[in-house]
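[audit] Reproducing an earlier prediction to check determinism. Same input, same settings, fresh worker. If the tokens differ from the archived copy the diff job will pick it up downstream; this log only records the rerun itself.
[audit] input (250 residues):
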Amino acid sequence: MQDVERIVDSLLKEVLTLPEKKMQIDRIKRRLSLKSPEEVARILERLYGMDSSIEGVRRLKSIFVDPDSLMEVLGEVKYRLTYLSAVELGIKRIAHLFTNLPPHKKGIRGYSTEEEAKMELITLGERRALAKRNDKDTIDRLLSDPDPMVIRNLLSNPRVTEAEVVKIASKRPNSAEILKLVATHQKWSRRYPVIKAIVLNPYPPPRIATGLLEFLLAQDLKAVSEDRTLHPQVKMCASQLLKEKEGGRL
């Protein structure tokens, strides 16, 4: 147990000294490379039992919102074995990090109004270029674009506001790929209204929504647990996390 605590404490400190996500992932990978799947499950259990308001904890949990990052850290074989260890140890909260269920709802993201639909007459290459520009009216009309690269460019555009990103995250129907882009974006994934909008949308991959639950307040976890439009796994995880918060464990 002391070894688990020591590793987690070291990671919390080290991840804050590294400016880029790739560097952070490489450091975590090195730290966990010699650990057994059971030890990794225990390390994750320790991390996820800590308060997400602590900056190092938040940083690590944010990295693991993306299941691809967890796969990169562990490698395919240890990833699978760590999941099995978490199941055998009864650590449901960690086992859920290794699931890959389809979104609760699937749909085709697209333009909602006649004015926005005019953008479809513009070529994809032009729309991708326009998403980088400074024109507010064009940005507004591109918020519903179905192309992930257009949305990626919008998310990196300094003129885009939080309210506009919330609009992207709230749109229904939506694309799982686009919602993942928002959920893992370095800037926007830290904004509470954006996190809440993604989790309350039935279209993201459940694994992404489950990872974001860690950052929700109790009242919003309660809303998620009671929302019939959301994936059963997301609702169940929200309920479990709410019980832990109310029990004083977080």
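[audit] rerun output stored. Observation attached for the diff report: The chain has two domains: 2-98, 114-246.
[audit] end
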